[in-house]
């Protein structure tokens, strides 16, 4: 497995504060690299550019909060970096094929069985396996 300190540093930064107002330049600045170099290395090693990865990373974080808390969607949206519940809902439905509220209901029904609802993680755009 290849490792790259610039990519590793950018991943640490994104993971440490996924709700931050990230831009294309900020992860590179966090690790002292250039944006084009980071984008090239990150994409080669992670499989998607930094901001696409961040979008992907935020969705499972939101799903975990929906599953494990009773917090309102607006609070969850803020915690994972979406400015509005609508923005999170749109991304969540595009990524997982289910609205956040439906996911919360479905996962609660499936939880006693220790399983995820069938629709969870089925969209190829997320890279998340269900």
Describe the structure.
The chain is mainly alpha-helical. The protein has two domains: 5-51, Orthogonal Bundle (Arc Repressor Mutant, subunit A), CATH 1.10.10.60; 58-113, Homeodomain-like (Arc Repressor Mutant, subunit A, Orthogonal Bundle). It has seven helices and no strands. α4 (50-68) crosses α6 (85-96). Mean pLDDT is 86; it is low at 122-130. InterPro entries: AraC_XylS_family_regulators, Homeodomain-like_sf, HTH_AraC, HTH_AraC-typ_CS. Pfam families: HTH_18.
Ends apart, CA distance between termini: 25 Å
Query: Which shape, going by the Cα principal axes?
Result: elongated
What's the CATH class label of the largest domain? Mainly Alpha
Q: Low-confidence parts lasting 5 or more residues at pLDDT below 50?
A: 122-130
Helical residues, percent: 55-70%
What does the average pLDDT come to?
86
* CATH homologous superfamily designation of the largest domain: Homeodomain-like
The CATH level-2 architecture of the largest domain is identified as Orthogonal Bundle
Helical run tally: 7
**Largest sheet report:** none
């Amino acid at each position: 497995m290849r490792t790259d300190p610039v990519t590793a540093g950018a991943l640490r930064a994104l993971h440490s504060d996924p709700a931050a107002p990230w831009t294309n330049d900020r992860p590179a600045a966090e690790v002292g690299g250039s944006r084009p170099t980071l984008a090239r290395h990150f994409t080669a090693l992670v499989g998607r550019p930094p901001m696409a990865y961040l979008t992907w990373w935020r969705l499972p974080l939101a799903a975990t909060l929906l599953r494990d808390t009773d917090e309102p969607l607006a609070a969850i949206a803020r915690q994972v970096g979406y400015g509005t519940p609508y923005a999170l809902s749109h991304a969540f439905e595009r990524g997982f094929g289910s609205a956040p509220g439906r996911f919360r209901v479905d996962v609660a029904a499936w939880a006693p069985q220790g399983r995820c609802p069938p629709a969870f993680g089925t969209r190829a755009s997320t890279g998340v396996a269900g």
